[in-house]
Write a structure and sequence with these properties.
With 396 residues, the protein is α/β, with parallel strands linked by helices. It has two domains: 117 residues, Aspartate Aminotransferase, domain 1, CATH 3.90.1150.10; 235 residues, Aspartate Aminotransferase, domain 2, CATH 3.40.640.10. It is built from 16 helices and 13 strands. The longest helix has 33 residues. Bound molecules: (2S)-2-hydroxybutanedioic acid (LMR). (2S)-2-hydroxybutanedioic acid (LMR) binds next to loops.
Length: 396
Amino acid sequence: MFEQLEALPDDPILSLIKLFREDLSTKKVDLGAGVYQNEAGQTEVLPSVKRAEAKILEEQTTKTYEGLAGSADYNTAMQRLVFGDDHAALRDGRVATVQTTGGSGGLHVAARVLAGASPGAKVWLSEPTWPNHGPLLASAGIEFASYPYLNLATQQIDFDAMLGALAGAPAGDVVLLHGCCHNPSGADLSTEQWRALLEVVERRGLVPFIDMAYQGFAEGVAEDAYGVRLFAAKLPEVVVVTSCSKNFGLYRERVGTANIVAASTAAAVTAGSHLASNTRRIYSMPPAHGAAVVATILNDERLRAEWLEELAEMRTRINALRRDLAATLAAKTGSNRFDFVADQRGMFSLLGLSPEQVGRLRDEFHVYMVGSSRTNIAGVREANLDYLSDAIAAVL
Ligand code: LMR
């Protein structure tokens, strides 16, 4: 039967990892998958993670099952990280949280609960959005629509068009938002825009579904959660999915959360049972190691302080690289067309290059980025700024 299957195209993001590894050029530059690299081009295990792992190795006494929701210590620590220590929704017992296999696992599990709770509801996705949002929702049986977000020509959020589209969405529909570090554009909502959006979401009776995969990579852990915390404080129902891939550097450990903020404690308990039942039906329960690392760090004052410093270092470096790349591109191209790179946040910006230009960068210059010209700024190095900027200028 399998010879009847048609081979599927490679994943547009993850296939770049393989292509980059196979390229033997010493000049190669990896601006593909959203993975942080240091100035030496390495994605190191964070020192706080190493210390937490040593502690776990020493102290862990069993490998028995954790349960469908994963580690309770982890879930509680993550609730505080995401919503803040003293958030009203947590105090009121309105938040159900399960540990998930990365942010992707969280998005899929949460989408399945949404599909069960409100069978006809559509999920509205930003245009553009992370290419895997659609497939993760579709495989949960959810239909989606899109709302305008980035104006590629101005590199600004087309906020009026966004609000206009959402103001026309039927009550009960779901709007998928990026908590911070919008992927792929790096264009984030300001605090005023979050408040204006809240008004439309509330008035239309929409349910926000916030994907926060990069908490701590834009301005800081609390600043980046502004929208999540505001919406969870003001609205009866919010879905929040998070990832520890980037901010804890735990990529391959696959650790994240799915959170449902419900209108009452009873509704949250019920929603939690649906999250757990869905994980049971997909993969039974999440792997333990990554969550144990995160819980160990967040629940130990010293390790937590160390981790916050490491996170700040990654954030500060990315923001400095953004400024340096914008300045070098301005010098090399004699134009200000890439100035927006300095103002955007998180790992990604869309450079606005054509697929042909992206192809030339790869074939002629060994520079790897996603076909949409999504560029992982965390893959830039001071040492290759000139080479990279010359290459981009050459294909313009
Ligand atoms: C990305 O957007 O590059 C990362 O989130 C990796 C992935 O799974 O696509």
